[in-house]
């Protein structure tokens, strides 16, 4: 499998099925609204239907620190309700948070917290008696490892003392647990080896949650470590039973490119595989589902109040710094209530090659169109009353590389294009994973390129953390009005590497 089913910064997938429809959630880290939820009827084509944590009462504003916020949600459907559990690491000592809803689109309840569950990556599973069990990677002193406790998911109250289950095969960072009840066994699926190149999926089983858990003889059941497969870092999986009784697995992976150590730029993405049960153990078939390339192109003209769920912001909700003044008039300005929080209206970059444009009215301020990993790693075009400037920020090195007079008129159109790097030398791989071009577009469509830059510096291998590239607009000074944003998958379709 080389093509993700949900591409571009959609890590830690968790899936459930209701009748013939599948629902999937992902981590969102520092971005609000949080926990995107997708829907599918074929496991291959997914539609974003919203974000589960969609209001400040569910997700309090934070500083927007890179790779903070919401880690590794689990989505389940039980007794007529959807349940989602996750960890807000910015408030980790409150315990894991649980919300529920009758419909996946919401409204979702305000969260309850399970006190005394310090750690990450929570999971919910119900036994035959209807008792809910919370499982997580515990950081609690005296309870370090994969812990489990029965709870009341409505109140968050523990119903017994937590216990340890199984801490994996001995690889680093056992985490991402999911419990399943099947044919009289409890199966415990884990991520091990860390979420980088050593990432794996392992499994164990026991007749009861008292254990002992027995490891699968063929662990790890999925990994691409120490191979030349174009998809790496595979792990953090979740299983789902299909309507016909067969099984599938969703998991995260990355698509690194360029010379060693290779660089992945769009974050950890969601992939799909088939699963067979052989002698009571899951066996992964990565080739079962041929995934077609997808066209992620869109044009947003902000024709009505309310934003498409693709739009998010670090540390705060976009409603804190945007207001709609009519079709094609989305005004952005820093919030006086949270002046230290970045005012960045962003969406995920989904493809390996793409072009995006933003048309801005900067008559009342200065605006920036940028591509970023975090606040210290970004390339951008800044437009003021007189000109447009290209800036490259790589950690503490911030360089203003070019400035040109802006086209005449009230608005300015800024363009960012990402395309494959050319191969150099005889080693068969380009040095960079891709190239990022910054340009200004005149009214007649002619384009003035201010610079083309190595994409490796907007990669996770350089910036660190757990997210991916985000594309969007920032009001640098005063207010700017966003009239239109377009994003075009180059060639009309994201294809395998």
UniProtKB/TrEMBL annotation:
<dbReference type="InterPro" id="IPR041542">
    <property type="entry name" value="GH43_C2"/>
</dbReference>
<dbReference type="Pfam" id="PF17851">
    <property type="entry name" value="GH43_C2"/>
</dbReference>
<keyword id="KW-0326">Glycosidase</keyword>
<dbReference type="InterPro" id="IPR023296">
    <property type="entry name" value="Glyco_hydro_beta-prop_sf"/>
</dbReference>
<dbReference type="InterPro" id="IPR051795">
    <property type="entry name" value="Glycosyl_Hydrlase_43"/>
</dbReference>
<keyword id="KW-0378">Hydrolase</keyword>
<dbReference type="GO" id="GO:0005975">
    <property type="term" value="P:carbohydrate metabolic process"/>
</dbReference>
<protein>
    <submittedName>
        <fullName>Beta-xylosidase</fullName>
    </submittedName>
</protein>
<dbReference type="GO" id="GO:0004553">
    <property type="term" value="F:hydrolase activity, hydrolyzing O-glycosyl compounds"/>
</dbReference>
<dbReference type="InterPro" id="IPR006710">
    <property type="entry name" value="Glyco_hydro_43"/>
</dbReference>
<feature type="active site" description="Proton donor">
    <location>
        <position position="175"/>
    </location>
</feature>
<dbReference type="Pfam" id="PF04616">
    <property type="entry name" value="Glyco_hydro_43"/>
</dbReference>
<feature type="domain" description="Beta-xylosidase C-terminal Concanavalin A-like">
    <location>
        <begin position="300"/>
        <end position="473"/>
    </location>
</feature>
<feature type="site" description="Important for catalytic activity, responsible for pKa modulation of the active site Glu and correct orientation of both the proton donor and substrate">
    <location>
        <position position="121"/>
    </location>
</feature>
<comment type="similarity">
    <text>Belongs to the glycosyl hydrolase 43 family.</text>
</comment>
<dbReference type="InterPro" id="IPR013320">
    <property type="entry name" value="ConA-like_dom_sf"/>
</dbReference>
<feature type="active site" description="Proton acceptor">
    <location>
        <position position="12"/>
    </location>
</feature>
